[in-house]
Structures are given as C-alpha cells and as structure tokens.
Amino acid sequence: MATTLKLILFLLLSLHIFSLVSSHRPHPLDPLTPSEFTLVRNIVHKLYPSLKLNITLQYVGLDEPDKPAILLWLSNPKSKQRPRCVFVIVRLDKQSHEIIVDLATHAILSDKVYNEHGYPLLIYEEQLAAMELPQTYKHFIEFIEKRGLNLSKVVCSTFTIGWFGELKSKRVLKVLCFYVDGTVNLYIVEYYDRFIVPVPKAEGTECRESKLEPPFGPRLNGATLVNPYGPRFKIHRHTISWANWKFHLGFDVQAGPIISLASIYDLEKQKYRQVLYRGFISEMFMPYMDPSEEWYYKSYFDSGEYGFGLSAVSLKHFVDCPTNAVFLDAYFSTNNGTPAKISNAFCIFENHAGNIMWRHTESSIPRKVFTEVRPEVSLVVRMVTTVGNYDYIIDWEFKPNGSIKLGEFYQLENYFLKNIRITNKSHNKFYNYLLLISGVLEVKGVTYTHIDQIKKNVHGTLLSENTISVYHDHFLTYYLDLDVDGKANSFIKKNLETIKVTNPSSPRKSYWTVVSETAKTESDAQIQFGLKQAELVVVNPNKKTNVGNNVGYRLIPRSVAHPLMSYNDYLQIRGAFTNNHVNRKIENKDIVLWYTIGFHHVPCKEDFPMMPTFGVGFELRPNNFFDSNPILKTRPPYIVHLPNCTN
Amino acid sequence: MATTLKLILFLLLSLHIFSLVSSHRPHPLDPLTPSEFTLVRNIVHKLYPSLKLNITLQYVGLDEPDKPAILLWLSNPKSKQRPRCVFVIVRLDKQSHEIIVDLATHAILSDKVYNEHGYPLLIYEEQLAAMELPQTYKHFIEFIEKRGLNLSKVVCSTFTIGWFGELKSKRVLKVLCFYVDGTVNLYIVEYYDRFIVPVPKAEGTECRESKLEPPFGPRLNGATLVNPYGPRFKIHRHTISWANWKFHLGFDVQAGPIISLASIYDLEKQKYRQVLYRGFISEMFMPYMDPSEEWYYKSYFDSGEYGFGLSAVSLKHFVDCPTNAVFLDAYFSTNNGTPAKISNAFCIFENHAGNIMWRHTESSIPRKVFTEVRPEVSLVVRMVTTVGNYDYIIDWEFKPNGSIKLGEFYQLENYFLKNIRITNKSHNKFYNYLLLISGVLEVKGVTYTHIDQIKKNVHGTLLSENTISVYHDHFLTYYLDLDVDGKANSFIKKNLETIKVTNPSSPRKSYWTVVSETAKTESDAQIQFGLKQAELVVVNPNKKTNVGNNVGYRLIPRSVAHPLMSYNDYLQIRGAFTNNHVNRKIENKDIVLWYTIGFHHVPCKEDFPMMPTFGVGFELRPNNFFDSNPILKTRPPYIVHLPNCTN
Which residues are annotated as active site (chains A, B) (predicted)? Predict the structure, then answer.
C-alpha cells in the first residue's frame, strides 16, 4: 500500500528509561520526547481549532533529516542542523491530512490531503471503538438474546478486509465476535448461526499455567548469568555501543525496531566503518489459502495495517529476555495526541549461547601442539509484537565477527474459530459499515471429527475435532539500506558456474568457478533464491582491501520460500514486493535492499493450540570488508569460576 | 567408498568418566571397555601368533546387534542377549582382514579378506610413520641440505591422493612438507622449488594469544551460568536422559558421535515414543575446484579417510563448552590393539541461549489481558574434530518441543601454502611410494601481490600477498535411521501446489494447497531441494493422531547447496552420495534417510588466516507426531534472582 511504504520512511524513536551520559544536543535521529508529542498536539489543534474533537492523530513521528544531513552531522556534530520537524497524519472529515510541523517555530510547513490508494494504520482507539460497537448495536443485541447468550461474554476483534481491485477502497473493518465460554483462549469455543453444531472440546486449549491441570511437562531450569565484569554495552540516549559495534536503536509505531548507523570498529584501520545506514521490517504479508466466501479476503499486512510498533508488548523479565537483559521503554502518540508509553518494549542483552567464535587445534608439529578457542558472545536487541493471534519475536543480533543476524524471527499462533455469524449492512458513518462475519470453520469442516470424513479440499489441517487450520504464508520484507564503507555501493551476484574440462589429459572432468556480475539496473538485481547458486554481495566499488578485493557485505539467506499465488491474484498484487527475494531500488547509487524472507505454513498438530516458535532469518556477513579475520585478535575471556552464590 | 559405508555400520561407543548409577548388565550398544580392547588384542594375536608384530589393527569396534535384537532387549531387558561381538579390521601382508570375535567364547566367528575397492581409514600411527619418513629418506635429506635448510624445521603432513578411475587403487599417501619459520601456523610460510620467490608476510597469520601483538580486540566477557536447581540431565553409562528426551550417545573412530534410540516422552500417552533409531555423520566430502596438476586430486573424505572420531580433540572447559557442561571421555584401539583415551571428547550442557519456546499475549478481552511465556532450554551434545586445517564442531541439540537440531555444524580453516617441492618415485614398500609434492600456490598466484595482476582464472581468492585460497565444497551426509513411533515408516513429500481459481465470480485468482505423495521406491525419494516447494516428512502409516493424521517427523533444511561438478567427474563419482539431498534406502520399510547438507566455499579475506565459524544444519521437527503442542504444559521456570556471588 502506498501509505505503508510512505509511512515507514518516517520514524519515531524510542525513549529509554536511562542514559548513562546526559547530553543537551539530541542526536538528529532521536525520538520525539513526551513534551514534543504534546507540543505537536497543541500545534495541530491550533491549526483546526473548531474541529479539535473530530481530529484523530493517526501517526506522529519524527520527520527524519535526509542522509546527507545526518552524515554531515556525524562528521561534525557542531554543524548547523535543520530544526527538528514532525510528520503527522490526521483524519479529518474522512480525509487523511499529511502535516509537517516545525518544532522550533511551531510553523506548519505543509498540510496536504492524501488522495492515493490506502489508509493510515489502525490506531488502538479505532479498534477499541469497533470492538465495542456491536454491544451497542440494536440488531446485534437482539441476535445475542435470541440465542440465550450472555452479551457480557461476547468479545469482538477487528480484521482488515483486504483489497480486490476496487478503484477507491473504503476505510472499513470486519469485526469478528467470539463467545467466551470459560476460557480466555477466545479462538477456541465454537458456536454456529441459528443452530448448534458439535463444539470443539475446550480441553487442551488452555495455555495459562494457573489454569492447567496435571500432568505437567518437566520444569525446565532457569539459570542466571553471572558476569562479574558486567555487560560490555553502553547506552547513551538511543545509541548503543558494544564490543566493536555501534548503532542507533529507533522505534516506529508501524515498523517497530529500527537500526540506524550501524558501524563496526576496524582494529587495523583504528576507526569505525559504516555498514548499515538503516534497517527495519518494512512489511509483513500474510495471505490465507482458502478461496471460500468467508476466507478468500484474508490477507493481512501486520505492519501497515496494525503496526508492529503499536502492537509491541511489554517484555517480561527472565522469561522474554534473560536475566542479564536491560530494558527500554517506547513512546507513541494516542489518537488525541497525548503521549503513551510501552514499558520494556525492548530488551538488550549479551548472548552467551555456548557457541564458538573460532577455534583451531594444531597437532602437525609433534612437540608444538596447541589449541586456541574463542567462545562467542553476541549482542541481541529484541522486541516482541503481538498482532491478534500472532506473536512475533524480532531479534537483531550483532556479532564480533562483523555479522548481523536478523529476524531470528519466530512466530506463534493459535487458531481462529469464530462463534457467532451476524450480518449487518447499515452504512454511512465512520466505522458504521461493519461486516460482522464468522470465520471459516462453521462453514466447512466444523462437522468433521476425523480425517477419514473429509472428502474434499478443506484448505487446511484438521487439528482436533471440528477444528481446521487454514494454510497460509508469512512473508517479511526487510528494508536494508546498507552503506558499506560509504554510500556509493554496488550489488554483485557471484555466480558459481560449472566449467567442463575438455582437455582429455586432465583427470578432472569439471570444476566450478565464480563469475561475478554487477547489477546495472534494478531488474538485474531482482532475484529468486534457489534457482541459481550465487553469492549476493553489496560492495563498495570505491574501496579495496590491501590486495584489491572490493570491500563488501554478503547476504546469507537461511530459508527460501517463493510466493505460490499467481501474479494476477489481488492478494499477490498487494504483496507484489514478495515476488522476488531481493529487489534493488537505486537512489543515486545509494542502494536499498528490499529482502523478503518467509515460509509457507502447513499447520500441524504440534501447532495447536499454541505453536512452538519457528525460526527463519538471514545473516549479513562481511565479505572482504576486513583485510583479515576481524576477531583473530580477540583475547580469550577471563575464566569465571563457578562462584559461591547465595540466593 | 565401499569400505567407508561398510565400516560405519559398526560402532565403538564412548566410555565416560562417571555413571550416576552403576549396573552390571551392559546396554547392548555400550562401547568396548579398555579390558575388552585388550581381550580383542590377545585373541587376534593368538589367531596370527607368528605375525604378531606385522599386524596392525585398523579398526576395532562393537559388532552391534541388529535392530530386532536391540528392540527385543528394550522391551525386555532380561531377555537373552546374543554374546557381545567385536568387528576388527587388521592389515596383514598388505591385505585387509575383517574379523568377528565373540568376546564370551573368545571364538573367531569369521575371518574374511576384504577384496573390494578402498581401504580402511588411516590410523594415527600410519600417518605418524609417513610424516617422519622423509627425515629418514636419503634423497630428501640431501634436498634439504642442498637448500641450506634446517631439517629439524621441516614438518610433514599426510594427504590422501583421491581416485581417478583406477580399477585397483593403491594404499598410498601424499606427504606434504612445510618449513616452519618462526610460526607454528605451518601453512603460511612459502618456499619454492629451486629458487626463492616473494614470501607471504607472516604478520597477521599468528593466532596464538601468547604471541599476538596489540592492538587487541575487545575482550568479550565470560559468564557463568548459575543454576541453583542443577542440570536436569542424567547420564547412566551411555544413556542420557533430559527433560522429555532419552537417547544413547555412542562414539566411533570413523563417524565420531552416534546418537541411538532417541525417544521422547509423550505427556498425554504417558510413555516414551521412538523417534531416531540411529543418527551420525556418515561422510564428509570436500572437493577442491582447481584442475591444475598440483590440485586436481584434492578431494577429501574426512570421515572415511581420517576418521572424525580418531581426529576428535580434547575439549577445553569454559571455551569449547560453557561452564555448566559435563565432559565425557572416549576410547579407541591403537594399531597394536592397546586401548587409548581421548579425554573430554564430548561435552553435554543445557543451553540457555535466551530464546523463547512459546509465548502469547492475549489482549482482546479488556479486563483479561494475559501473557504466557516459556523460555527455551535445550540440551546440546558436542564433539569437535580436527582434520588437518579444519575444525568441525558437531552439535546435536535436543529441544523440549520434540525437535532435534543437527549439525549446527561449524568449520574453521586456515590456508595451505606448501613450501617445498619434491618428487620421488621409489616404489614397492608399504608407504614407500611417496609423492612429496607442493601445494598450489607456488605454481600460480604466488607472485601476485594484488588482484589487478591476475589475468587468468586462479581458481581461488587472493587473500594476502602471494596467498590464494582455492574454491572448494563441504558436503556432509547424515545417516538418519528414523523410527517414528516404530520401525515401519514411509517417506512423504507434501508438495505445495498452486491452484488457479477458474470461477470468475470468485475474487481470488489462485491459492496453494498440499498434495501429498508417498515415495514408493528409492528413486521416488531422491530429492534436490530448492527445485520444488515441498515439506518432507517421515511418517508411520500405521499410527494416527486422535483425528487421523499420520504421525511423522519433518526434515527442515536450513541451507541448500547442489554439487556443481559434472556427474562423470571422478571426484563426483566418489561423492555421488551428494547428488541428491535425500536418498531413501528401503530395508523392509525400515527407512534410512541419507541427508546431505553442505556449502560452496568461496573464501574471503575474513577467512584468513582463521575462518570465523560458519553454521549450516537442519532440524528434525515433529509433524503430527503429538496430538497437540507437547510443551504447552511445560510450566515456567522458577525465577532465579541474581545471587550474591563471591568469586
């Protein structure tokens, strides 16, 4: 969606609870402070005084300076900075206004009505209003009572309706209501239209420890990391430095975590070198694979529609993050412009997973056998966002070897079983066009209690009696603005190609070699993985190693999933950014990688009612960026003997 | 090689330093004890009294009972077991004898001369003899003196010669010698035939901390895991039980670690259920991609030629494994049959990497928001084997969710630069046909100091002046005898196929669905990943979930690399087992998966002189094996508060 891509270009940075060093001049990427949010609110209300109460602020975020300004500031922090500006989207008379505010002069720099396709993301208050609307809606109340149900046990949630070619789409939500019958796992209890059908057993669907009955699984031990030398990372406002890494951690209501200005210290060159100007998840595309009336439209854009940042949850000490984690809060603007806080939206911790960074045992020289080992420690930045039934664990991991591991991305879900089928077609007021429909299962499958009964394609897996989970995809597109040792970068495909040996005297018949290919145009750089064996490297053609290799960073995929819907499918047209895994945008050679990862989810019993975490992800690894192994001269850790501890 | 596949069917299990419980009846898979090794030695020497001194024992391992016998014993440990037998390979008069010994009666059950292609792996003493041979060889000594070199500074290593179509291959080694000039990183110093050429700088190639000069990298903190509740795993002889897992850890001089009888406890069924009868790395294939005279033959089978087990190193506390690790020794037979010990060949530890096992925040019901999180703990079994310049870190990770993650396999290398070119063609005595040749670099590339000087294909990357690293592959084939809830299993491809929606009234144009395909024949089950989107599941067609799904385990690949050599290349003929990623052997429906993973290694500067670890691997994940999420009823850990510790 146009808005989606537009919005994510603006970011709101997180304000964390403490700064080790205080400073008066903010980093130009620093987030809006609560007082700045309030200032924005007053300026906007002054702009439309008569309409104060009808205005909703859909988005308030820093209007980020462009890259040259940021780089100038980096090279000379005392250089004159442009005044801090804020990008605001307000809804007013069913229109989306894009307003830019100058915080210094309080001036409105621009106020444009946005007329393109799409709408700003759904803010919390809108969804709450929609969720509560049915309880006040006459026909709905009658409907509930007619069935002898208790209105107080009806809970509703909001769902986007997708797009199917409309030239002018409406700002409309589907609201699905659930009947909560003794379990808060509200996707589980089944109720159907005008007559009762078998209800899936609630047994085994409870997930709250307090409500679980024995037998229990083994209690896995907790452990505390004791590190007498303390964590090595420093947080100064929003800039985090650890080992040889330095980066800025931002927060945006739509994208969630944003990593900016990541650079790594080069021991030989004795300076920090740029790696990643900015990276974040630009969108999450989740189409379902059931063409039936009740399900065909299901295709969510969790970032653009619901907001990864807006849906961020407060992380729990010790279980969401290990004992050595440090937590940071995040702030955002509510619909009326007053700032709100998400406590512990981020955690940052040194990861001691017991891996080895490098090792070698040399035994070729009898009397000179030696072993050198360096255990691995990395730094993890974590945010968890919960969109409906999905929990996404977003990890950014920084390794001393120069690697950035992204999206050790996990998801968990439980399953939709809607329990009231209602249709209502009243129109013409904001949020009044509500299509309250049921989910899929009461339409087909709900009567099935065993696979043998299923004779047709049910587009999913029978997980328990009357419970079918529908096939779907998860595609995440990462925005990766790599600045490898500077802005001007090139995208290189190192194709591995087989060479046949024709010389009959050679015992070899073949070997492979590397044929490098520089992408000249965007289409050159459109790639589907798995089709060809190649290494993908973003290089700086203007910088060389001591023997002349282009310095670069390599993209190492972990799992490969190609979209399986036809390109003319409306869902796929919206999700067209997933057609290729890598899609280069050229901005005066300032390359941005749009990298899509994902997986096709064929649900299985183990995913019911809660799916164990499933990881996909990828790695950005230095490739001739350094002149030699950058961790060769990392000394082994001090031995920490098991201490005497008293709890 | 025939021998390779033959040998790995026999395994020698590790004897660890302590048992929590002592027992008199050994597990039928338990390894040979030192006294059993000695007994074998005496029996073999009695068999060939006159030849005692000319006999070398190339392999001594338990002659494992077949699966029915093991399963019978499992069901009734009191049932009569066949006597313990040992499989021995001895070299005698240039022949390989395969001998089976009955430990109870001391009888020789069989003594066959092995006449097929291939030879047993190289034992330590043979390699040592070959390494020392040049120093006693007249022509070699003259050669060294002629060059004014110091013989005591010459170190030699042994290299297999590959196979290039010979009908009867010789048991021959290439011995490469290096001149150690102030660094033990003996691959680095360069010397060439009859004249001096530029010598690669030794600077930056030292890896011993004691010898490193500042500036140093940041010292990464060590950390101690404090777990007041102690580790949850128990080791009884060679059987390890932890959380819901139970398995047997074996050791073989060729394969290294062998996991047998892995089964998982089903909370609902209240019993252990079989998953993996046996799994290990059956071979490691490493072809180089330089067709030149000096390099064309380089293609190593590190398991079959050098032995992963024989090359296992003693793990160092705290750096190779975290502080909470428990270590186990391994035993093997020397050439004369006396037992030898590898201290700390294995480490076993609970892994607290800070991951999340499952979580959900439910906020749809305003007054009933809840969050449930279960942090992940897993159990890791680790062995490290060093074959020449490669260190392989072999991890088996068991997760409470039923997953087995294999081969979070890392490798590290430094680079060959041979420094003496010698040819010598004397024949006719065991080990006397020595081809002492140089490596690649003095032939081409050695004069290059910058990439711009290179005008032809050098089959590698210029890593530093005069130093080129040659392209090569790493392919590991895993032997995975899955017994999913029993022996009789089937191999199913769940193909994800696009369905076009032809009904014009439907807003959808397409969706994907799952079309399952049961492999009837072995060729049905030959698969190259990446060509088609499919899930691969080993199922037990005789066992169903409560709603009728086949119980199964899914193979989830992580990285995909296809061989790039032509199939008629002798190297690829030997490595033909890598042609397909999955190759099913059918043994009365007792399926064995031969799964090949690997990667093409295009070396880069960061790999010099020591390569940071690089991970490939895969996951075996339950797929409708359980009726529901098996960790749903795992309670959260006790909170462990940061204790007061005194070091």
Answer: 302 (proton acceptor), 390 (schiff-base intermediate with substrate)
